[in-house]
Design brief:
Largest sheet of chain A: none
Low-confidence stretches of chain A: none
Shape of chain B: elongated
Structural class of chain A: mainly alpha
Strand content of chain B: under 5%
Distance between the termini of chain B: 25 Å
Helix content of chain A: 40-55%
Radius of gyration of chain A: 24 Å
Chains: A mainly alpha (213), B mainly alpha (74), C mainly alpha (208)
Number of helices of chain A: 10
Number of strands of chain B: 0
Order of helices and strands of chain B: HHH
Mean pLDDT of chain A: 88
Oligomer: heterotrimer
Distance between the termini of chain A: 21 Å
Number of strands of chain A: 0
Low-confidence stretches of chain B: 61-74
Largest sheet of chain B: none
Number of domains of chain B: 1
Largest interface: A-B, 45 and 41 residues
Strand content of chain A: under 5%
Radius of gyration of chain B: 17 Å
Chain lengths: 213, 74, 208
């Protein structure tokens, strides 16, 4: 739902709920009872669905992820002037949408993957405000990076299926697809954010006149 | 407590939850998300649940209200 | 999820509108008037919006586009076993989502781009059922293919910005970005669907 419709809907529901709260003798007529049903059940449910969708969408934005100070270094690592860094190569070549750069690779894409990731995120917010924030270099993933995230885009792609490096052994690709051989931790595509490299690194910045919106 | 009072309480609770939801959609920040799922949604849902239970527990008192009183009232 | 909610909402909206329509004396109480307002304006607007979104999304699928027989050849061109065909290379390498392959490149992405395309599409549906559909090889795009469609993904991308072929003259890239030099019809990236090539072509299919 676009934000304008969501906000308008919430506002209408809000006014109607207030009307139900303030109106005397509402339940005496059938119209009143039905109005109460619409105002206290249907419209709130639809608004909450719209609001939730909106929040989920915002939580996938790069800006959202980088609003915690501790994530800034990971944001910078997207600008390494070096193709061997996987996140940087994806970001600079628009292989992931720049405004959803983090989320595109950091969800598991399964059913409710987004919601499971958000529960972990709740914990992050707790730590950010009430706990000890770790140093960027000490931040590790909860679980090994899942092949499915890579396969979500690359599976079935001609290059991915045919490139020589993916056929070093006869069953290599099969193992990758079955998650028995990790894309990122089998010594193949293992140069990732590497925030420790930041201090000596060179960075690529997009030529000015084309700055993404 | 009659249904009238319960309806009014539910109305205020739903309204309060919705107000929080509205405000939470203005900034883009993790805390706005928390305000939404942690406060706006639960307060609103409690209001909705309160309304639903008040309906379930109040089947009878409405009965005499229906056709006869309505005719006199409008 | 969205689909189920939309259907429920349409059903509820229908039931309430029917109630308001059938109920005598609805406008005598204030509750009745407000209920009519919600049943006849607020809920229908939300329901229509939900329904429209659903339809728009369906219309953007490859399956939807290929339902007209005349489009079948264009679908086949996505499988050419030859990198020089732009649509095939985008499809085979998943540079475009395969289930929305046509729409991704054939919408102008401007404000209401999707809707302008849809109005044009209505004309296509008319021709399909009441007119004479052309031969696939005679089908031409209605306006020149806009650079903005390519730039939607490629603009700012490092490969696009820095590749030598885009710097043959000093202002080449600038002209491309300003739509003064066409990506597809300046003899640079001009091998497109070419349905005429189909009969002698080799095809690539994804390994099972």
């Amino acid at each position: 739902m676009p934000i304008s419709i969501t906000l308008a809907l919430i506002a209408v529901s809000l006014i109607l709920a207030l009307f139900v709260g303030l109106r005397e003798g509402l339940s005496r007529t059938r119209e009143g009872k039905m109005l109460a049903f619409v105002a206290l059940f249907i419209l709130p449910v639809v608004s909450v669905w719209g609001g939730f969708e909106q929040h989920l969408d915002r939580a996938t934005s790069t800006q959202f992820c980088l609003s915690c100070h501790v994530m800034e270094d990971f944001g910078k690592s997207l600008h390494y002037d070096d193709k061997s860094y996987i996140p940087a190569a994806h970001f600079q070549n628009n292989r992931v949408p720049r405004e959803h750069a983090c989320y595109t690779c950091h969800t598991d894409y399964a059913m409710f993957g987004g919601i499971k990731a958000k529960f972990n995120g709740m914990h992050h917010i707790y730590v950010q405000y009430f706990g000890d924030v770790p140093k960027p270099a000490d931040i590790k993933l909860y679980k090994p990076f899942p092949n499915e995230t890579c396969l979500h885009c690359h599976l079935g792609s001609r290059k991915f299926e045919e490139v020589n490096g993916h056929h070093k052994t006869a069953d290599m690709l099969e193992k990758v697809k079955a998650s028995k051989l990790s894309c990122t931790s089998s010594g193949c595509h293992d140069t990732i954010h590497a925030v420790g490299d930041l201090k000596d690194a060179k960075f690529w910045t997009e030529p000015k006149e084309t700055e993404a919106k | 407590m009659n249904i009238e009072t319960k309806l009014r309480r539910a109305g205020f609770m739903v309204a309060a939850g919705l107000l929080l939801q509205f405000l939470s959609l203005l900034p883009l920040h993790p805390l706005a998300f928390i305000a939404f799922v942690g406060f706006g949604v639960p307060i609103m849902l409690i209001g909705v649940a309160y309304y639903v239970f008040s309906l379930l527990s109040h089947t009878h008192p409405d009965a005499p209200v229906s056709p006869a009183t309505r005719a006199g009232q409008s | 999820m969205q689909y189920a909610i939309t259907l429920t909402l349409i059903a509820l909206s229908f039931a309430l509108a029917a109630f308001v329509g059938l109920r005598a004396g609805i406008s005598r109480t204030r509750e009745g008037r407000i209920l009519s307002f919600v049943a006849l304006l607020v809920l229908p607007v939300v329901a229509v919006w939900g329904g429209y979104t659903e339809h728009e999304e369906r219309a953007s699928t490859t399956e939807f586009c290929l339902q007209c027989h005349v489009m079948a050849d264009f679908g086949k061109t996505l499988h050419y076993d030859d990198k020089s065909y732009i649509p095939a290379v985008h499809f085979e390498n998943r540079f475009v989502p395969r289930d929305q392959a046509c729409f991704t490149c054939h919408a102008d992405y401007a404000l209401f781009g999707g809707i302008t395309s849809k109005i044009h599409g209505l004309k296509n549906v008319y021709v399909q059922y009441f007119g004479t559909p052309r031969k696939p090889a005679d089908i031409k795009i209605s306006s020149p293919f806009p650079n903005s469609t390519c730039l939607h993904c490629h603009l700012g991308s490092r490969a696009f910005e820095t590749v030598n072929g885009h710097h043959k003259t000093a202002d080449m890239l600038q002209k491309v970005k300003a739509s003064q030099l066409s990506c597809t019809s300046s003899s640079c990236h001009d091998t497109i669907h070419e349905v005429g090539d189909l009969k002698d072509a080799k095809f690539w299919t994804e390994p099972k």
